[in-house]
C-alpha cells in the first residue's frame, strides 16, 4: 500500500482507479507526461581496441586497470579476448575514448598520498616511490627496514 500526502492508507483499488483516471486524462490531452529517453547501451570493444586505448594514454596495464577500477588480470583477459568487459566498464571505456583528458582531470588530485592509497588498494601492484621502496627493502621516509 502507498500512503497519500495525509498519511492515509490507499487501497490497491484506489491506486488502479487513479491510474486509469490519469490515463484517460492523458488520452484527452488534459494531462501531459514527461518522457525521458534512455541512452543507448555502450558499444562493444574488441580486445585490440582496449589495448590500443590504453597504449594511446601511455598507461601500463596496472595503471589502466586501476583507472577502470578492475584488477590487472581482468584487464589482461579483456585485452587477450578471454573475457568481455561488463556494461559499466564499457561505458567507462567509451567515455575515456571520447574524452581522454577526463582521466587526467579525475586523477590529477594532488593529495600526496594518492599513489600510495591506490597501490595499497590494488595490492601494491602500482609502483609509487613508497611502495617500490618497500618492495626493494629500502628505508621509507628515513625509517630503517625491520
Write a compact overview of the structure shown.
This protein has 8 helices and 2 strands, in the order ββαααααααα. It has 146 residues and is mainly alpha-helical. The chain has a two-stranded antiparallel sheet with strand order 1-2.
Task: Tell me what you see in this structure.
Strands 1-2 form a two-stranded antiparallel sheet. The protein has helices at residues 12-27, 47-56, 61-68, 72-79, 87-98, 101-107, 114-121, 129-136; strands at residues 2-3, 9-10. It is mainly alpha-helical and 146 residues long. The chain is elongated and about 60 Å long. It has a domain at 47-136.
Class per helix and strand makeup: mainly alpha
- Strand order of the biggest β-sheet: 1-2
Total count of helical runs of at least 4 residues? 8
Average pLDDT, rounded to a whole number, is 78
Stretches where pLDDT is under 50 for at least 5 consecutive residues are: 123-144
Question: Which descriptors apply to this entry?
Answer:
146 residues, mainly alpha, two-stranded antiparallel ribbon, 8 helices
List the helices and strands and how they pair.
Blueprint: E1 2-3, E2 9-10, H1 12-27, H2 47-56, H3 61-68, H4 72-79, H5 87-98, H6 101-107, H7 114-121, H8 129-136
Antiparallel strand pairs: 1-2
